[in-house]
């Protein structure tokens, strides 16, 4: 059956949206369906599911599951452009995570006055703020900033540079990011300029590059990569941090928390907090040994 591209938007309270999202997760026919769940309006408790079906069957399945949850209001919008993925990305709603507001060019006029506003457009790099892992890192950082400040920050796997840019914009004197992907480094440096953030990004794998080591030791290291490299880099991340420094780790699934945490506990970290978003988890670990 031919598929005319649509975006399905469902809004409701947090409980209603999470329950509807769980129903999507539980449906084996929708295993490959892409959707995001975000808080759209904190004060009014409005959460939003955006789903981007790629086939007619998926579209019908998603709408059927959502219709079973009267707590959410569903709107289906037709995407006219053939490049529907790019369109849906450019139409992504802005994301609020604590004090941070991550938005794209199309939201220029809708930026709130009392937030740290980060302009990050969807492009070739990962990290528009919509992924559960990025939101988890920003929420964790926001909570930490209520109690302490971080002069030197490293972002391993910078993507769009959103995390190091967030640090530079909230008072970190040194904000360095690295990525193994060259285009991501270029995009991150462009985003830093765009956001008037004094953050610098270098093309490097892991933390052993002189350009990365030279700015350490760090007060905070972000690493939003995947569970296996997080485990593999545990000693390097420890050595990059000052004693008392914090690692915010994400890119791991809830089911991988134990494995990643164990690697860091054995190296002298304590687990301070955990943030869960969708299937993803972000861990806050402090180096105490
Ligand atoms: C999930 S994205 C995170 C992007 C961004 N930091 C965020 O939180 O939205 C992971 C990024 O890490 C990069 N990456 C993966 N393994 C890496 C490694 N060992 N060293 C540096 N970068 C790595 C990938 O190229 C990708 O851009």
UniProtKB/TrEMBL annotation:
Its EC number is 2.1.1.-. GO terms for biological process: methylation. It is found in: Cytoplasm. InterPro entries: Ribosomal_L11_MeTrfase_PrmA (IPR050078), Ribosomal_PrmA_MeTrfase (IPR004498), SAM-dependent_MTases_sf (IPR029063). Gene3D superfamilies: Vaccinia Virus protein VP39. It catalyses: L-lysyl-[protein] + 3 S-adenosyl-L-methionine = N(6),N(6),N(6)-trimethyl-L-lysyl-[protein] + 3 S-adenosyl-L-homocysteine + 3 H(+). It is an enzyme of class 2 (transferase). S-adenosyl-L-methionine binds at residues 134, 157, 179, 224. One of its GO terms (cellular component) is ribosome. Keywords: Cytoplasm, Methyltransferase, Ribonucleoprotein, Ribosomal protein, S-adenosyl-L-methionine, Transferase. GO terms for molecular function: methyltransferase activity. HAMAP family: Methyltr_PrmA. Methylates ribosomal protein L11. Belongs to the methyltransferase superfamily. PrmA family. This is Ribosomal protein L11 methyltransferase. The lineage of its organism: Bacteria, Pseudomonadati, Pseudomonadota, Alphaproteobacteria, Caulobacterales. The gene is prmA.
